[in-house]
What does this fold into?
Amino acid sequence: MTTRVEIIAIGKELLQGQTQDTNSSWLAKRITALGGLVGRICIPDDDVAAIVQEIKVSFGNNAQIIITTGGLGPTFDDMTLAGIAEALGSPLTLHPGALEFVTRRYQEFYEKGFVDDPKITPAREKMAYLPQGAEPLDNPVGTAPAVFLKTLQGVICALPGVPKEMQAIFEQILCPRLTELLGAAVYREETINTGIKDESVLGGISEQVMRKVPGTYLKSKAAGFGQAMGLEVVIMAVGSDAQVIQEKVHEAKSILLELVKALPTRTAR
Ligand code: ATP
It folds into this structure.
């Protein structure tokens, strides 16, 4: 069985179009490659109630893993941890390990000349207040620790919004934990250029392939009419056995190509 993962990208600037939400697509790709099933991506405002609502919806959807990005910083509108704490009904408390991390990072940034003063101000200390039971994760790039929290309903991982920080924490720290949580899931995909130019024709063929090879999913990549190239279709499969998954993709590809070949020439090319 695949593990359902939901991504919550937090931030007003995403909703206002000032920043494009590239974090979600990056995470979705990585989680899919690890064999997880990304079931939903949403963007709430920098608002505790909005964040609480999305976390509750995710757990209501039986998401076993929730990943948030953004809103971990020192400013007043960084609300992610307050939202998570409220959703779980547990208070934010000062975490000694997180405070130690924040203190060390500001000292390092001070020595490098990035900040004028290493002192831990209330704004800086705010980043060390975590929901009860949460574990801080080192941020190799920035000052805000990421957060890993196991709850009865599932795991919540809170990552910073800055893509470089988010990606570094994901790859260096979170990935091994996620691999364990996602089990031995394997994902394979293959992209085929079908030569078909009409998506409505390709849709019918894809459905036939999915029926014949259960466990595969075929997604055509839409393009405008009259394109010189034919449409591409991505064949995807996920499961626990790498060989079975690879065979499914291979079988789906063979059937797809046979069905395309059987089309009247004018439809296919
Ligand atoms: P910091 O600790 O640096 O304050 P943060 O976790 O508080 O990080 P935000 O303040 O929410 O993160 O966002 C910081 C910056 O990261 C934004 O100004 C934007 O440039 C970028 N960012 C935030 N969310 C996303 C996203 N979903 N996709 C791409 N970039 C993002």
The pocket of adenosine-5'-triphosphate is lined by residues 9, 11, 13-14, 19, 21-24, 69-73, 78, 142, 144, 160-163 (CB under 6 Å). The mean pLDDT is 91. The radius of gyration is 22 Å. The first helix runs from residue 12 to 15.
